[in-house]
Amino acid sequence: MSEPIDTITTEEASFAELFTKGPEAVKEGELAKGKVLAIDDDHVTVDVGFKSEGMIASWEFMDEDGTMLVAVGDSVEVLVEDAEDEDGRVVLSKEKAERLKVWDEISQAYEREESVEGTIVARVKGGLSVDIGVKAFLPGSQVDLRPVRNLDGMIGDRVHFRIIKFNKRRGNIVLSRRALLETERKQMRETTLATLSADQILDGVIKNLTDYGAFIDLGGIDGLLHITDMSWGRINHPSELFNVGDEIKVKILKFDPESERVSLGLKQIQPDPWVDAALRYPLGKRLSGRVVSLTDYGAFIELEAGIEGLVHVSEMSWTKRIKHPSKVVSVGDDVEAVVLDVDEQNRKISLGMKQTEENPWTLIEEQYPVGTRVSGTVRNITNFGVFIGLDEGIDGLVHVSDISWTEQVKHPSEKFEKGDEVNAVVLKIDKENEKFSLGIKQLEPNPWDGISKKFGVGSEVTGPVTTVTDFGVFVRLEDGIDGLVYSSELAAERIENPAEVFKPGQEVTALVVKVEPEEQKVSLSIRALTDKEERRALKELAEQESQTQTTTLGDLLAEKLGNKSDE
């Protein structure tokens, strides 16, 4: 007994319709629905309503493991390749039917700008090969919003794409993942822009690192986290804290809707270490820290995250003259220091390293009172003096003016060399400015003391010429002491070039006209001596005139001057 007509399934009705239409309803190259009649090891027999059945290779119905996916009585969709072959059979293909169906689906997705899903299967020249049911090409420039260096790492990934080129006849399909990401990013951007405001704290992803900061993806829009806003502490490069892809929380410091620029901060959501820093670091407190940076003027010491103190180069040693902090410390060294000053407002802490040791200058006055004789080694020679090193590491300065009472020393190198052992006398100690003044000439009596008695004003002196200059002639009075006869005092009439009249070694007699012991100067005059002799001659003539009236005054004066010239 046959089943009632209303119990026929939809599938059976489809076949019934197909059989009713006859073989002419299905053409070569078209899809047809068929029914599995038999299955063996090599073939699957399918009836599509033609005069004869078609045979399809069994592998077309198996999965990768070789499992048969259909059974007798199942309906299948196949492609009619040939209505009748040499044996009178219909030539069918399930694999080609699926491929044709995929092409139709791909064509529809392309026309509707819909996404397709596929698996990246291989790296090829210029990009990747993707299986979306058929082979398609994904250019390297379309893989992501940013260039991807390791394309091989994406093999095996199942991803959604958009078809940007499609040519069924040539079998050419070009995909883009970037197009989908840009659309998604645009949607996210609009959502993010609508909700952004200053002081918000958001989650973001490190997108890129530069020397000056990091760009953070906030969801379709990038914000800049400047290096100065990453940490309260010192950072040389953002890579010290972050890697591309890291997820972080940031605070919006500034947002400009028109330019869509977003400034971000990380340290602003962390406690400010400078708050109450003066309480944590009182003056005189001894502490330890790590050297994080060196400059020409000092070393920066990290006391805690976000707080650094500066040890100025002058605060590194009581006694050594340090030209550069690298002579004492290196980056990474752990050092001890003492707090000298705290400026919370300007975020500065001044530290001293030498203060961790006893100040030798506090004992120097007791050890070397003024007038004490000391000995040491010449450590340095400058144009203004000589530095003498003592046993305690303290250098004393012998100024060029304190080298000799009598010699005119133009440069200390004329008298000393580095390493020379010398004796000196302590002249002055300045603890506050850490200066120690010494004198060498003070080891001997000052020959200028009592010079006024030896060479009183108005007395006549005789000595050899030591130096002839444009402004006068120096005459040796005794060892180490010269008197100066200015050019205007060499003769009654001015001598323009003293070197034409006077030579070194020539004996001259002059009159002392001025003595300045403090300035170490004795002024002489030959002209004054001549004037004195003339006045004496006139006096003698006057006396002779009173004795004789026969001789005229002119004769007497001529005679006297004549005798003088003979002498």
Secondary structure class reads alpha+beta
Strand content: 35-45%
- Mean of residue pLDDT values: 82
Number of helices: 8
As a whole number of angstroms, the C-alpha radius of gyration is: 56 Å
What is the domain total for the residues?
Answer: 6
Q: Termini, distance in Å? A: 184 Å
Give the CATH architecture of the largest domain.
Beta Barrel
CATH superfamily of the largest domain: Nucleic acid-binding proteins
- In the CATH scheme, the class of the largest domain would be Mainly Beta
Question: How does this structure look, described?
Answer:
With 567 residues, the chain is of the alpha+beta class. The chain folds into six domains: 5-99, Nucleic acid-binding proteins (OB fold (Dihydrolipoamide Acetyltransferase, E2P)); 113-181, OB fold (Dihydrolipoamide Acetyltransferase, E2P); 196-269, Nucleic acid-binding proteins (OB fold (Dihydrolipoamide Acetyltransferase, E2P)); 277-356, OB fold (Dihydrolipoamide Acetyltransferase, E2P) (Beta Barrel), CATH 2.40.50; 361-443, Nucleic acid-binding proteins (OB fold (Dihydrolipoamide Acetyltransferase, E2P)), CATH 2.40.50.140; 451-567, Nucleic acid-binding proteins (OB fold (Dihydrolipoamide Acetyltransferase, E2P)), CATH 2.40.50. 18% of the residues lie in helices and 37% in strands. It has helices at residues 10-21, 94-112, 178-195, 277-280, 361-367, 451-454, 526-547, 553-566, and strands at 31-39, 43-47, 54-57, 75-82, 91-93, 115-124, 127-131, 135-139, 158-167, 172-176, 201-209, 213-217, 222-226, 247-256, 261-265, 286-295, 298-304, 307-312, 334-343, 348-352, 373-382, 385-389, 395-399, 421-430, 435-439, 460-468, 472-478, 481-486, 507-516, 521-525. The model is unreliable at 1-24 (pLDDT under 50).
